[in-house]
Design goal:
The complex is a heterodimer of chains A (about 625) and B (about 400).
Chain A (H helix, E strand, L loop, with lengths): L7 H4 L10 H8 L7 E8 L5 H11 L17 H6 L6 E8 L5 E8 L7 H9 L3 E7 L6 H12 L3 E7 L8 H12 L7 E2 L8 H11 L12 E10 L3 E10 L2 E2 L3 E4 L5 E3 L3 E4 L3 E4 L1 E2 L4 E5 L13 E4 L18 E7 L5 H12 L6 E7 L3 E8 L2 H15 L3 E3 L6 E5 L4 E4 L11 E15 L4 H10 L3 E9 L2 E9 H15 L5 E12 L1 E8 L2 E2 L5 E4 H18 L7 E7 L2 E8 L15 H16 L1 E4 L2 E4 L13
Parallel strand pairs in A: 1-3, 1-4, 4-5, 5-6
Antiparallel strand pairs in A: 2-3, 7-8, 7-16, 8-15, 9-14, 10-11, 10-16, 12-13, 12-15, 17-19, 17-20, 18-19, 21-22, 21-23, 23-25, 23-26, 24-25, 27-28, 27-29, 27-30, 30-31, 32-33
Chain B lengths: L4 E6 L1 E2 L11 E2 L5 H19 L8 E6 L7 H11 L6 E6 L6 H10 L3 E7 L3 H7 L5 H13 L3 E8 L6 H12 L5 E6 L7 H5 L10 H17 L3 E4 L2 E3 L6 H7 L4 E4 L4 E5 H10 L10 E8 L3 H6 L8 E7 H12 L8 H11 L1 H13 L3 E3 L5 E3 L1 H5 L1 H9 L7 E4 L1
Parallel strand pairs in B: 1-4, 1-11, 2-3, 4-5, 5-6, 6-7, 7-8
Antiparallel strand pairs in B: 8-10, 9-10, 12-13, 13-14, 14-17, 15-16
The chains are: A alpha+beta (about 625), B alpha/beta (about 400).
Chain lengths: ~625, ~400
């Protein structure tokens, strides 16, 4: 017999956890029966209404008042809201008084939405038993509906189909149900029809979650076993980790241990987000919440690690942990070298909440002092660069991304390099090995050919493929990481009209015929423009890059030849023509101020460029390698 | 004391050209606003005269817009008000379609010495593409009649315009030269935002206006005009000996000038600005250390027409220090064929420091933008003509600090 928790609407307070009645609820919540817990995430194609439905759930369960509901409550970082992507995982607890008379604890887990964060996504899904699959009643099943449903089914989640926007005149829910059954092989007879806009059907959705999503399993008396989904740094409390408890109980004062990294700490408090942080006496089995570790070093708390008791550890950690290693390395240089120290400080500040960031100092002849920074992927790089520029007022140049290569030298030693500049002279290289990924793509059979071609174009090898149903094929292939980081994911999405889902894990290192492609401006090698490329692709790449740089670099006072070279051999060439005319001839009735302001504007423009020798090079030139496939 | 040049602006046109972002408005013929505006401008000229501001004035320029669109009577009145203050030269801008015989007579009668005719091209299709309201024959006729009337005649031509070819450009140059004029101004079309052309080509620079085309046409103009005896004396200006525009040269040689009219710009020394303030109390006191003041009238054409005097107008202001003014003088001087003389350089060295000025001169020479004159001054090279902004930028960079601005 489960205790009934008084919903907030009866006591009139803002939160279910009302200040007046909190003692009642806290006492009872600690004993929440596993059968009264539902852990789930919401997945959808873009714009099918994931955020509005999340908001409605918070509202209907009185987790937040209507007036406090800023839309998209779960995406908190500015850049996340601006770009409409989720970077950090987030878990919000809501209490739902169901029609069966019980009050259920729902943990709504928001997952990152980009391939750079594949690992984080997999950890977040591992914390769920179910997923609400939202489909737009006017659009039907679309590409990301398929790819997200595949991710959720791969994680063995119970799927709650939900058809949204039924208030629209063009809604055709019955056809959408058929599509869900046919395209996704998910029974949709009981799909819930809702309108995130009017709130209609949200109650039914909550009921469906109660009945369709399995309650968590676990042993309350076993040693603690809690999975870390995410973490952030709090200046006063140290690292705060979001966790899912699989076995046992976590209380303030417990001596705890990170199983993979081995560090121990005293639990400084537990709680959950509603969506504001609310402290609890304990986090019990099956629950999702946060734990205050008191650890001052964010690097000690890793997504995917397992927290257990120091003196009574669980037998096995949660499966699937691996350290989120940086995959992509780029040089970050301040345009103004005086900002070098500021850049270091800014990186240190960002790392506090983004422990996956790594860096080492790097020196470039062309760009001066900077850092070689490791990222999870290119989106991660863009987000970090944008935050450094926006939040810390830095003007930065990012150089071509690289992976971590293993260079075997003729003297028998091996060095790891992440920057083309560190590549030894070609006569001292025995072979170069590059990291490969084991990638998995799930895609409708119609797009199989397109994916295979894309894999071949990116030097990958298809290993095998399995029909999951008539509507979907799972393809496995090995592909060099260096190929995947550039534009593989974008091209995969565009060539499969968005239907493909991609998942990957690190594979082994393999020897490849790699060369360093140098770029010369006005006859001088610009080290910051060099990059490592497969010999078969070097010629095409060199030509494309010279052409792209010709577009990006503005005319100068003199002609600037741009050359691509391997060693001493020039393999491509283009020329930025000399400026021929740059003068404002017209005199506007003696308006000299106007002429002077034009000169000042031109000077400002030049400040944002980097002088390489006598050539003024704009920031974007250093990332030209990412743009050669734009056409 | 006193300004050396007087500029009056007439912001009215029959229609707005496709490239034009000057202070001008398409206005119905005979709109009484034009008469009221011209009368107000004439009153302000008299006001400036009675305040002593025009005591040293030598040249005048009535620009626009289209001054000849005012019609013979109104135009004649305004020119007559300016003429007493412009003993060496008084230019009136004209459009071919409104430079009628009675307008010409009025100009001569009122004391104008020079007309500058906006021809732009002698190709009918090119003129239409620019939104010009006149045809080639009308344009050439206007030039010839101006010459026949005994005025100094100048002609504006525009290059790198829609439909223009190398051949049609040569043709336009030859056509206007055949009229016997002594002065030609050549401008590459500048596509500005907020113009019809700017909107049409918002996505990017069209091929007809490409930098290489502009450069080639400017050089073709220099060759053709030079061969006809018109030497380049300023970036955009060519003249037979003795026919250079004295008023234009005042702008580039640091001669103070007074600007009257909507959008008109002026430049005053600190002393004259103080005199102007006695008539215009709303103008702020010049900050300490002000050497030179640049002002642009921001009152609209109706407000200008209704104003009792210069004190009723609003202005944008810039206050330059002696150092800034010295750098500006070098910047402006480099637009002229003769460049800057030894005296100006010596003054700049005193004001800005010999080392800084010498370094700038050395940079300009190293970049091939300027060369030493036989008499010790500095003059632009061929390269310095086409890459003028580089050269002027080097000089203006000498100016310390930022120019103080104000609106009143």
């Amino acid at each position: 017999m489960s205790p009934r928790i008084l919903p907030a609407r009866r006591c009139g307070h803002k939160f279910t956890f009302c200040p007046t009645h909190s003692w009642v609820m806290m006492g009872r919540m600690n004993k929440t029966d596993l059968s009264l817990i539902r852990n789930f995430s919401i997945v959808a194609h873009i714009d099918h209404g994931k955020s509005t439905i999340s908001d409605r759930i918070l509202e209907l369960t009185h987790t937040v008042d209507e007036r406090d509901l800023s839309s998209q409550m779960l995406d908190s970082m500015d850049i996340e809201q601006e770009r409409g992507i989720t970077i950090k995982s987030n878990a919000v607890r809501v209490m739902y008084a169901a029609d069966d008379g019980n009050t259920y604890q729902f943990n709504l887990i928001d997952t990152p939405g980009h391939v750079d964060f594949t690992y984080e996504v997999s950890r977040s899904l591992a914390a769920c038993e179910g997923a609400v699959l939202v489909v737009d009643a006017t659009q039907g099943v679309e590409a990301q509906t398929v790819s997200n449903a595949n991710l959720a089914m791969n994680a063995n989640l119970d799927i709650v189909p939900c058809i949204n926007k039924i208030d629209l005149p063009s809604a055709h829910p019955d056809e959408v149900k058929e599509e869900i059954e046919e395209d996704l092989a998910i029974p949709a007879d009981d799909a819930v029809c809702v309108s995130g806009k009017t709130g209609e059907g949200i109650h039914d959705l909550l009921e469906a979650i109660v009945y369709l999503v399995s309650p968590p399993k676990g042993d309350a008396n076993a040693p603690l076993k809690a999975l870390i989904l995410d973490s952030y740094f709090d200046e006063y409390r140290g690292v705060v980790a979001t966790v899912r408890v699989f076995d046992g109980v976590m209380r303030k004062g417990d001596r705890l241990k990170m199983m993979a990294l081995g560090d121990t700490f005293l639990c400084d408090g537990v709680g959950c987000k509603r969506p504001l942080e609310t402290s609890l006496d304990e986090l019990g089995v099956g629950e999702v919440g946060y734990v205050v570790t008191g650890l001052k070093d964010p690097a000690l708390v890793k997504t995917g690690d397992t927290i257990t008791y120091e003196d009574r550890p669980c037998a096995e950690p949660c499966p699937g942990y691996h350290e989120a290693k940086p995959m992509v390395f780029t040089g970050l240089f301040p345009i103004d070298n005086k900002q070098y120290e500021n850049l270091r400080d800014a990186l240190e500040k960002l790392k506090v909440n983004d422990p996956s960031l790594t860096w080492t100092p790097e020196t470039s002849v062309a760009l001066g002092f900077g850092f070689r920074v490791g990222f999870l992927g290119l989106l991660h790089m863009e987000v970090v660069k944008e935050r450094l520029e926006r939040e810390f007022g830095l003007d930065l140049i990012a150089t071509s991304p690289s992976v971590n290569y293993h260079v075997y030298k003729t003297d028998g030693s091996m060095i790891e390099i992440t920057s083309p500049q560190d590549l030894p002279d070609v006569t001292r290289i025995e072979r170069i090995e590059e990291p490969y990924l084991k990638a998995k793509v799930i895609v409708p059979p119609d797009f199989m050919g397109a994916v295979m071609q894309l894999v071949i174009d990116h030097r990958g090898e298809t290993r095998d493929m399995v029909y999951l149903s008539e509507k979907s094929v799972e393809m496995h292939f090995d592909i060099p990481l260096a190929e995947l980081i550039l534009d593989f994911f974008d091209q995969l999405k565009s060539r499969t009209k968005g239907y493909a889902s991609l998942d990957y894990e690190m594979g082994e290192y393999r020897a490849s015929d790699l060369v360093k492609l140098d770029i010369l401006l006005a006859g001088e090698v610009v080290d910051a423009l060099s990059f490592i490329v497969h010999r078969d692709k070097a010629y095409d790449m060199a030509r494309a890059l010279c052409d792209k740089l010709k577009e990006i670099i503005p005319r100068q006072q003199f002609e600037v030849p741009i050359q691509g070279a391997i060693g001493n051999k020039i393999i491509s060439r283009s020329t930025v023509k000399a400026h021929r005319k740059d003068v404002l001839a017209k005199c506007y009735g003696g308006d000299i101020s106007r002429k002077r302001k034009l000169l000042e504007k031109q000077k400002e423009g030049k400040k944002r460029m980097k002088s390489i020798g006598s050539v003024e090079v704009p920031q974007e030139a250093f990332l030209a390698v990412l743009k050669v496939d734009d056409e | 004391m006193g300004v050396g040049a007087l500029y009056v602006h007439v912001p009215f046109c029959r229609s707005k050209c496709a490239y034009c972002d000057f202070s001008s408005w398409a206005t119905r013929a005979g709109d009484p606003l034009m008469g009221a505006y011209a009368a107000s401008a004439a009153r302000m000229v008299s006001q400036a005269g009675s305040m002593g501001l025009l005591r040293g004035c030598r040249t005048g320029y009535l620009g626009g817009g289209t001054p000849t669109y005012l019609g013979a009577d109104v135009l004649g009145g305004l020119v007559a008000a300016m003429a007493p203050h412009c003993p060496s030269e008084l230019t009136v801008e004209a459009n071919p379609d409104s430079l009628t015989d009675d307008v010409l007579d009025a100009l001569l009668g009122a004391g104008a010495t020079r007309v500058s005719v906006g021809v732009q091209s002698t190709n009918a299709a090119e003129l239409a593409a620019l939104g010009r309201v006149h045809g080639p024959a009308q344009a050439l006729d206007a030039l010839s009649r101006g010459v026949a009337a005994g005025l100094d005649v100048s002609c504006d031509l525009m290059c790198a315009t829609p439909l223009q070819t190398d051949e049609s450009w040569e043709r336009s140059l030859a056509d206007v030269l055949s009229c016997g004029i002594g002065h030609v101004s050549v401008y590459p079309l500048q596509i500005e935002d907020d113009t019809a052309l700017g909107r049409r080509y918002a996505d990017g620079d069209p091929a007809f206006n490409a930098e290489d085309v502009q450069a080639a046409r400017m050089e073709a103009a220099e060759r053709a005009l030079g061969a006809a005896g018109l030497a380049r004396y300023e970036v955009a200006s060519y003249a037979r000996p003795g026919k250079a525009c004295a008023h234009n040269r005042a702008y580039w040689t640091g001669v103070p000038y007074l600007g009257i009219g909507t959008g008109a710009s002026g430049m005053l020394c600190a002393g004259d600005y103080a005199i102007l303030r006695t008539a215009a109390p709303r103008l702020p006191k010049a900050p300490d250390g002000t050497w030179r003041v640049r002002l642009t009238v921001t009152s609209g054409r109706r407000a200008f027409a209704e104003a009792a005097g210069m004190g009723d107008l609003s202005y944008d202001l810039e206050f330059l220090t002696e150092q800034q003014a010295a750098a500006e003088d070098l910047m402006l001087g480099m637009r002229l064929a003769k460049g800057v003389g030894e005296g100006l350089l010596a003054h700049a060295r005193r004001a800005l420091g010999a080392q800084a000025v010498d370094a700038a001169v050395a940079e300009a020479r190293r970049e091939g933008l300027a060369q030493e004159r036989p008499d010790g001054g500095l003059a632009p090279t061929r390269r310095g003509w086409l890459l003028g902004n580089e050269l002027y930028g080097i000089m203006w960079d000498l100016a310390p600090g930022t120019v103080l601005e104000a609106s009143a």
